[in-house]
Protein 1
Amino acid sequence: MVTNTKHSLHQTATMAEYLVYDTMGDGMLGREAMFYLLRNSLVSISGEDDAEESVKDMIEVITKKLDIDRDGKISFQDYKQSVQKQPMLLEVFGQCLPSRGAIYTFSTTFCSNPALKM
């Protein structure tokens, strides 16, 4: 029973992370959505368009890594399977999980059971 609960919590967490990235709300991460998520991750030097091209290159690499069914978009199933194989892909589009400090602050503020605290 514990394993089943742990599995469903993991599945729910993975779905929540995916929904953070699904900015268009269509259940798919297309190139436009990925560009929106990654556009500020690189800085261009002296106003060159290299940063935009680099983001497009990143999108190509990410799509090859995550798009399991090769339809050009990343569905929740694609994302979930990829993250299960390589957990480091969890935050490939940016931070979606709270920092350790935020978790600690939350748990010490709202958890009365010391076993639930970090």
Protein 2
Amino acid sequence: QMADDDAWPQLEAALAKGTPSLVPVRATGPWAPMDALFLDMDGVLTRECDYFERAWALLIRQTLGLDPGATLADVSEADLAEGRAFRKRTKGGVPSVRIALLLAEYARAHPERPCPSIDACRATFYSAVQALQTADFGGDWEGYLLP
């Protein structure tokens, strides 16, 4: 099993070669399908939580006004750390709850910025995941993403 920090460059390399397949791994809890995705590259299963940390970091940059034109290439290590910390603080629960918590945290930390709606954040996160998505997740993926 690779460390999260090592997974992203390998994902990019795999994408350059073709389309890898994402394999959901069953775990416990309502958020488990997202947290337990593995990436199958050349027959090797690697932990791919970083895939979603990038989406959260991109959500923070785009929707919350840090950089509306941000792309995955613009996600810095600091952004990624913020995304990881947020996911750990809000472990479990449905996306709307997590996004509401993110908005509350952001509003407290950045009172000078307008705070977007939960729906706007959810739409941006959905777009970020779709931008990253390279295969059909299957199952109840959209039910977890869009409660």
